[in-house]
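Q: Hi! Curious about what AMP-dependent synthetase/ligase domain-containing protein looks like structurally. Here's the sequence.
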Amino acid sequence: MLLFRNSNNRKRRGLPVDVGGDPGMAIRNHRFTSPLSSAWEGVTTLAEMFERACKVHHDRLLLGTRELIASEIETVNGRSFEKVHLGEYKWLTYRKVFEAVTAFASGLSKIGHVRGERIAIFAETREEWFIALQGCFRRNATVVTIYASLGEEALCHSLNETEVVTVICGRKELRALALISGQLDSVKRVICMDDDIPSEASSVQHGWTITSFSNVEKLGRENPVDADLPLPADVAVIMYTSGSTGLPKGVMMTHRNVLATVSAIMTIVPNLVDKDVYLAYLPMAHILELVAENLIASVGSAIGYGSSLTLTDTSNKIKKGTKGDATALMPTVMAAVPAILDRVRDGVFKKVNSKGGLSKKLFDIAYARRLHAINGSWFGAWGLEKCLWNFLVFRKVKAILGGRIRFILCGGAPLSGDTQRFINICLGAPIGQGYGLTETCAGATFSDFDDTSVGRVGPPLPSSYVKLIDWPEGGYSVNDSPMPRGEIVIGGPNVTLGYFKNEEKTRESYKVDERGTRWFYTGDIGRFHADGCLEIIDRKKDIVKLQHGEYVSLGKVEAALLGSHFVDNIMVHADPFHSYCVALVVVSHQALEEWASKQGIAYSDLSELCRKDETVKEVYASLFKEAKKARLEKFEIPAKLKLLSDPWTPETGLVTAALKIKRDIIRKAFSEELSKLYAS
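A: Let's find out. The predicted structure is below.
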């Protein structure tokens, strides 16, 4: 169980509220009596919000991109890696971006786009993505967002189901598009964000007209067209989730839906102003990043683009001795998924442990002192001691992310208490941990900046009601003691229309109550703390009944076992025909190799090391320790393990772009290994 230290229970963060719909316990944000739809008077769409921001902040910097100075291929142990040397950020002001957006919107009309046609953006996060999105909004075109890492089958499904006519993509994604062109039913136009269009993607070969992004802008400047602005109820985005099960589903989001979440988060993030600088590197096809960039733009802040592979000076793709994105940009605000923050934490601890000696002792003392201070009070007077530890120890850790981070928005998956504390201590910054889904435009709850408890996701956002309803089959009730528990249901203006061309699934997951409030049934299980904050404790789909009747929550067990330093990723599997569960463990290369070196164990490669009995025994002991720390029952602890050396990445199709495991796909991919675990 997580320990909720200094959770400020005396301060009410969420309050009970009487709402319609299924009976249960509902909570609202303590500062708002009814859900917030817009934070700006007269602004009802994302297009209006962006135009307002450009008029107010026209000479401030908005979009920044690093110049590629050099790229080379390095070969290590027979494997090739691209290394890049990137320059400083080149910036566009709000005025220049708005000119580019209006030109691109006019260019869309010039190349033949007509009202009602859908446009897909299929690319990595970059400034052209943002410009294209805002340009589409000015033509009232619904944007279909597709992850750059999506596989061929899911890509075909997304484009064909939505009958996309125009695809906007990068050079790399264009190659992927060309491979499946014969399977696409409706694509007529392709706009490449890069000027050097690959020859294999020619119009003649694939039956589409193809042009560059810069050419569309040029056509628009030469042939300006009046904007065709959307209404609040118009669909802004059909967002295809990367999906943890089966083919992706397209979630229909109106301008009103997304605007509600953007407005709500703006009221929560402390002192978000036009002097802030945001580092954008998460997939913009993910609702967390799409909301974050629109939020940053709405207040006049700057957005600098990067990638997860070039984030820090030691990132995989950064040439040794050159700057990563964070060092070059020095952001003040960033969004993150827990997997990214876990990697930062693990990297720091690895470096500290490898140095040893006085450096490690100083770090350990400083960390313990800061932890004590935070557990006492976040606003405790640390005075000279705080300054001393900052100078001696934490200054170098802060420099990893540029040295100026003051706030981190975290979402997409549960954040471990250890990582949250690491960020609080080493970066000296609060984390706003949020809970939401694509179906709620990422909006549901968001932790207050002055709440130093761990393991919780805060009170409802100002745009949402959050309600718990009984789930008798799982044994959860709003009448449970000491806290009400149940399935989490979210209502408010940020709740989306439903799934594109999937009325059955929409009816199953969405309901409109007698008062007109739209609710989404999440399938997640939560409990309310006395101060109105939510904690996620289970998921309906992740619960499996074992042979002797015990229920195992796979997600809960995985979250606990991820605390082992040997684990990079893990999937726990339970079979109703057996009395125990098993696990597939993707090992941390660094941790396992360091252990093997200390033990004097010889091996030819990591896969051989993973097969050794002593390795499995060591990793199992580490998992068992984490399980006991989390107070797991005996039947919840995996009885057998299979260690895997190859990482699970979005490119392998085994995890989503937000790095959540795709349970069904992993189960099928490793069915033989799972069968052997149960047979042995």
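A: A fun detail: Confidence is low (pLDDT under 50) at residues 1-9, 377-381.
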